[in-house]
């Protein structure tokens, strides 16, 4: 990590259980892992803050993501969750369906549906509609988001999600 590394404590809530991970960005974006390439997380925000302080990770920001609520009608929230799972899957070197080429157009709809000022210069709010095929893909992405999170927090499973024997 270089001197310009920025840190963010990210709360992931799944099944009403919160876990706190450290998202890092410098010349790349990643989650902090241990020597065994397992993501470092705590069940209390204060514990993660103590961890950061001990390691001199200065002024981490904080973001909360509740994956018990995955409403694709809120494009900005859904896009943020898609992006953070993308970062987590890349850190863990596991497949995430949202990264597949045939999901690019769907992802773009969420980008435009977020009405980011830099992209939407018309001032008109874009509200995407989704056809049946896209809704199936959204369901696939949503399911895979939870799968990636479960793999991150459950070392008893292999990268395909199968129980280790």
Q: What is the CA-atom radius of gyration, in angstroms?
A: 17 Å
How much helix, percentage-wise, in residues?
A: 25-40%
The biggest beta sheet is recorded as: 5 strands, mixed
Structural class: alpha+beta
How far is the first residue's CA from the last residue's CA? Answer: 36 Å
Q: Any idea what the shape is?
A: globular
The overall pLDDT, averaged over residues, is 89
Describe this structure in words.
The protein has 165 residues and is of the alpha+beta class. 36% of the residues lie in helices and 18% in strands. It has 4 helices and 5 strands; from the N terminus they run ββββαβααα. It has helices at 45-54, 75-92, 104-113, 132-153; strands spanning 6-14, 17-25, 29-31, 41-42, 61-66. Helix 2 (75-92) packs across helix 3 (104-113) and helix 2 (75-92) crosses helix 4 (132-153).
List the topology elements:
Layout: E1 6-14, E2 17-25, E3 29-31, E4 41-42, H1 45-54, E5 61-66, H2 75-92, H3 104-113, H4 132-153
Parallel strand pairs: 1-5
Antiparallel strand pairs: 1-2, 2-3, 2-4
Helix pairs in contact: 2-3, 2-4
Name a few traits of the molecule.
single chain, 165 residues, 4 helices, globular, disordered C terminus
Give a brief rundown of this model.
It contains four helices and five strands; from the N terminus they run E-E-E-E-H-E-H-H-H. The protein is α+β, with helices and mostly antiparallel strands.
């Amino acid at each position: 990590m270089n001197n310009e590394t920025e840190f963010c404590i990210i709360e992931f809530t799944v099944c009403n259980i919160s876990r706190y991970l450290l998202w890092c960005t410098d010349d790349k974006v990643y989650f902090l892992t241990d020597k065994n390439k397992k993501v470092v997380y705590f069940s209390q925000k204060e514990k993660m803050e103590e961890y950061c302080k001990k390691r001199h990770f200065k002024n981490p920001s904080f973001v909360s993501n509740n994956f018990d609520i995955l409403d694709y009608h809120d494009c900005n929230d859904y896009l943020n969750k898609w992006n953070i799972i993308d970062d987590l899957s890349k850190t863990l070197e596991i497949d995430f369906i949202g990264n597949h080429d045939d999901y690019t157009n769907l992802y773009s709809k969420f980008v435009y549906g977020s009405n980011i000022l830099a992209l939407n210069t018309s001032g008109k709010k874009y509200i995407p509609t989704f056809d049946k095929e896209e809704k199936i893909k959204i369901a696939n992405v949503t399911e895979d988001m939870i799968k990636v999170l479960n793999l991150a927090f459950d070392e008893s499973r292999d990268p395909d999600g199968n129980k280790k024997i």
